[in-house]
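Hey all, quick one. A colleague (J.T.) asked me to put the glutamine job into the tracker so the inputs and the structure tokens live in one place instead of scattered across chat threads. No bug as far as I know, just bookkeeping. Sequence used:
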Amino acid sequence: MVYENVVTKIYESLKQETGKGRVAQYIPALSKIDPNQYSISVCDLEGGTFSIGDTDKRFTIQSISKVFTLAMASKHLGDKLWDSVGREPSGTSFNSLIQLEQERGIPRNPFINAGALVVTDKLMSLYNKPKKAILEFVRENCGDQDIYYNNEVAKSELEFSYRNVALANFMKSFGTVEHNIETIIDIYCNQCSISMNTLTLAKSFLFLANGGVNPATEQRVVKSRTAKRMNALMLTCGLYNESGDFAYRVGLPGKSGVGGGIVAVLPGKLSIAVWSPELNVNGNSYRGIDTLEQFTTEIGISVF
Ligand code: GLN
């Protein structure tokens, strides 16, 4: 694969770059993860893949799941979704409560926790078994039936989900969400606990590099217009209050999660996933961002 040399070089140069952040502490099951793990996978639209590092290890995708649930909800609801959630960067951390009151219970975007809880609430109206539907959607997109929820992480997050419960309750007072809060939070914690390695993660995002069509199955996942819009949202909101800096340094639509994963898309060409569990103050993998920055610098291509 053409990117093999570049990715190997980046991996070697950043392999020792640890100790500058901390693994997520607020979900006890995540705080126990070995911080030194590191892997990178690239998939192109011709079917080529290249992976290096701890590629057989799985990690929980956390907020990256927000892209999958958004794709599922957008498919059914189209523009109606935007009555309940905005499309602006929040400039606040992923679990911030502060804007919600000022903005009358409508979250700024679907990639902060409040916005994702709204999307999960919508999926509860659209699917009889939303948990099963989310898992099937992810399995289908990466072509791997062996993708599961990590029950230990889901349970651990559920036990400590005070902030997410607060966000959901607050939105319920405005009527932004309609279902039972406990069930919304249960589905949300489970979607965050989906475990993948960098290869399956990169594969599962290829439809966004391919105008909404899964290149492996040639099945349309979302309309091409939806794919473009989702990429726009990832570029502007995918890394919370670090989205501007990520666009500046990396120049690709991307989405991060507190499990240490980041996945990015180069439309028309490829997807790339990185995993390195130590996070910076914004809850994003700093080595993941450094990796992606070096990648677009080395290949000389970004969306700009
Ligand atoms: N499960 C995490 C939470 O809700 C996801 C946050 C993240 O990945 N940024 O707090």
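Adding what we noticed when we looked at it: The chain is about 45% helix and 10% strand. The radius of gyration is 18 Å.
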